[in-house]
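Title: Comparing notes on inverse folding

I've been comparing how different people in this forum approach sequence design from structure. To keep things fair, I'm posting one structure and asking everyone to reply with a full sequence. Here's the target:
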């Protein structure tokens, strides 16, 4: 075996996963693609299915399993967080306002990274804070590109409308004025993963008296630039 690690069973399991990379395969297809004996290919595929690294399609063929997508998402999140620190610090320095990075978690959004304004009046959102998906510019961004059914559900009880989210998709950024918290304004833009799916939202937030009632005019471009840097890092995979 060309790529032998010295651990035979792992090498064979890797062969099975590699064979499934090109699409669904029957057991006979797996045997042909891997060169493994039929009982070995079957035993490994079933064991990998137990660990959710392999699954079956409607025709009973073997396919790559959901656990691989979960691991890939975790790797992507690590990359996102590794890049977020300097990007958020730069965004804070350019705008003079606190900067945050949010990811969606079910019906909530969680602050996974932040760079606080160093002095004066500021909007502090500690890392780990869980906020609703019903208000705020980051919630608008995380909701705007959802599939229609989830979008419709998410709009129930929200402080923003479908029309507002249509504007967010058109502009590529969102703003809110006192939507999440009285006296606080914010601007957010989407971070996109390799498949162009929105995976996070970058925001700046602060008091309305500084950000004004048109915060996007002041800070949209800086927030879009920061989101672009994070999206590029995810696409590069470094």
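Reply #1:
Here's my take.
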């Amino acid at each position: 075996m060309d790529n032998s690690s010295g651990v035979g069973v792992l090498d064979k399991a890797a062969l099975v996963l590699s064979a499934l990379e090109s699409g669904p395969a029957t057991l006979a297809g797996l045997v042909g693609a891997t060169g493994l004996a039929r009982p070995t290919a079957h035993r490994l595929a079933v064991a990998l299915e137990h660990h959710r690294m392999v699954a079956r399609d409607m025709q009973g063929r073997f396919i790559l399993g959901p656990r691989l997508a979960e691991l890939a998402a975790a790797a992507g999140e690590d990359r996102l967080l590794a890049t977020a620190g300097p990007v958020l610090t730069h965004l804070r320095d350019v705008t003079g306002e606190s900067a945050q990075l949010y990811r969606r978690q079910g019906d909530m959004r969680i602050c996974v990274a932040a760079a606080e304004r160093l002095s004066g009046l500021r909007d502090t959102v500690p890392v780990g804070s869980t906020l609703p998906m019903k208000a705020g510019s980051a919630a608008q961004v995380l909701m705007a590109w959802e599939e229609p059914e989830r979008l419709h559900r998410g709009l129930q009880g929200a402080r923003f409308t479908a029309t507002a989210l249509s504007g967010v998709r058109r502009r590529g950024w969102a703003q809110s004025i006192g939507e999440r918290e009285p006296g606080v304004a914010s601007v957010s833009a989407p971070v996109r993963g390799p498949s162009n799916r929105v995976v996070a939202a970058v925001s700046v937030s602060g008091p309305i008296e500084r950000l004004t009632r048109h915060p996007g005019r002041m800070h949209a471009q800086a927030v879009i630039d920061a989101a672009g840097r994070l999206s590029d890092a995810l696409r590069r995979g470094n």
